[in-house]
Amino acid sequence: MDCFDPKISREIEVSSKKYIVNDKYYVVDFSSWDEDLRDWLAEREGISLNHQHLHIINHLRQMFELYKRHPVIRTATSELRHRFGAETGTVKYFHRLFPKGIHQAFLIAGIPMQDSCC
Within a domain: residue 116? Predict the structure, then answer.
C-alpha cells in the first residue's frame, strides 16, 4: 500500500451528501461514514458486497470504535470463522472478500487512516 499524505484531503459527493476523504479516499471523520458511502467505495473498489462483507465491515467498525485503533486481520478472520464456519476463518478467505487486504476493508468500512498505516 502506498503511503497517504495527511495534508491532502478532498470533498466528494455521494447521494447528495458531502464527505471529506484523504488522498486515498479514506474518510477523515469516522462518524461521517454511512451506507451510501460504503456502497460507493465498494463499487469504486470493484467489490459487490454480500452478507459476509457487511458482517466484517460492521465488525471492523465496532472494534475501531471500541479500541480507537485499527483491528488486526486475525480479529477479522476469527470473526468470520465464528460467524460463518471454519472454512471462512483464514487470511486466504479474507482476501477473497477483500482482494487488496485489510486496508481495503478499512477503506470500505470508513475507518480513517492512521499515521502507522503506510
Answer: no
